[in-house]
Design a protein that fits this description.
about 120 residues; mainly alpha; about 0% strand; rod-shaped
Length: about 120
């Protein structure tokens, strides 16, 4: 017996991915705006053919969809930039601590060398 469940789950997953894509790109918002405009239009002015109404007015919303998609991408990129800047700051602090430790060790080694030279000079 062949199971249909994996195919159904796969379709549901693909549907969910596509729905997320439509939301992120702003398409859902554009379609919602179109539906709202069609509903708010007075009954005597409502289109007889909603499909033609959509085609006629799509260019008005198409720019909005593009702007929304760009705005969403910009917000996502800004969030990633903030995270990278925080990580960069933390790494710079880490580097500063390591440099301070290395300088202290180098200074201690130089002081020990100076002390050894003074000790030799006083013995001669």
């Amino acid at each position: 017996m062949v199971s249909i469940v994996p195919n159904k789950q796969q379709r549901e997953k693909e549907t969910e991915i596509f729905r997320n894509y439509l939301e992120k790109s702003g398409t859902i918002d554009a379609l919602t705006g179109w539906i709202r405009k069609a509903i708010e239009t007075p009954a005597e002015e409502r289109p007889i053919d909603p499909e033609n109404f959509l085609r006629k007015n799509w260019n008005q919303w198409n720019g909005n969809v593009l702007q929304t998609a760009i705005r969403n991408a910009l917000q996502q990129t800004h969030g990633e930039l903030v995270e990278v800047l925080k990580e960069n700051e933390a790494l710079n602090e880490c580097i500063g601590r390591f440099e301070a430790i290395a300088l202290r060790r180098r200074l201690s080694a130089l002081e020990a060398s100076v002390a050894a030279l003074k000790n030799r000079a006083s013995k001669s």
